[in-house]
Automatic annotation (TrEMBL):
GO molecular function terms listed in the Swiss-Prot or TrEMBL record: phosphoribosylglycinamide formyltransferase activity
Keywords: Purine biosynthesis, Transferase
Catalysed conversion reaction: N(1)-(5-phospho-beta-D-ribosyl)glycinamide + (6R)-10-formyltetrahydrofolate = N(2)-formyl-N(1)-(5-phospho-beta-D-ribosyl)glycinamide + (6S)-5,6,7,8-tetrahydrofolate + H(+)
Pfam families in the cross-refs: Formyl_trans_N
Pathway where it operates: Purine metabolism; IMP biosynthesis via de novo pathway; N(2)-formyl-N(1)-(5-phospho-D-ribosyl)glycinamide from N(1)-(5-phospho-D-ribosyl)glycinamide (10-formyl THF route): step 1/1
Family, similarity comment: Belongs to the GART family.
Protein name listed in UniProt: Phosphoribosylglycinamide formyltransferase
Gene Ontology CC annotation, any one: cytosol
Gene Ontology biological-process annotations: 'de novo' IMP biosynthetic process
Length: 185
């Protein structure tokens, strides 16, 4: 089960690399987006649960209901913070990708922040989702060197390539055990 908010390029990589180790059962988004179109084009059930800032608690309950009972919930470019009602239900089963080597540069601007700080190496992280922003236990990371003259866009494109490979590797290594994910990678 995959959560999306945007173009769905990470979702597309997850879809394209399905095999006997994992299958995408559903895609849920907070907005009508290209990710929903990608899911439907692949024959995967898709649903939009419109974000409601005036009723975050209710929105989290509606998201949890839409997700159902999958072995894993993958946040793939999903740009909303999931609340306690959602996280308690899917604790130990919700994972996220982030375009930096956490714990450095959490939040929505990891690539920009890494460049501004002047790091020589950044990368991609897959981690469990918890109540913080990009603070969950790290599952896997891969480094990406910052090249002279990199812009936020050029560096982010190289990170996205690594991110797509890394999430597929993590999903292939994941096994559902007693309501949580075990990932040996």
């Amino acid at each position: 089960m995959v959560l999306v908010s945007g173009t769905g390029s990470l979702l597309q990589s997850i879809i394209d690399n399905q095999d006997e180790s994992y299958r995408v059962s559903k895609v849920v988004a907070d907005v009508d987006c290209q990710g929903i179109e990608r899911a439907r084009a692949a024959g995967i059930p898709a649903e939009i649960v419109a974000f409601d800032a005036t009723d975050r608690k209710g929105w989290n309950h509606r998201m949890a209901a839409a997700v159902g009972e999958p072995d894993a919930v993958v946040s793939a470019g999903f740009m909303r913070i999931l609340g306690p009602a959602f996280l308690q239900r899917f604790e130990g089963r919700t994972i996220n990708t982030h375009p930096a080597l956490l714990p450095a540069f959490p939040g929505a601007h990891g690539v920009r922040d890494a460049l501004a700080y002047g790091v020589k190496v950044t990368g991609s992280t897959v981690h469990f989702v918890d109540a913080g922003v990009d603070t969950g236990a790290i599952i896997a990371q891969r480094a990406v060197e910052v090249e002279p003259g990199d812009t936020e866009a050029s560096l982010h494109e190289r990170i996205k390539k690594v991110e797509r490979e890394l999430i597929v590797a993590v999903l292939r290594a994941a096994r559902a055990e007693q309501g949580t994910l075990r990932i040996d990678i």
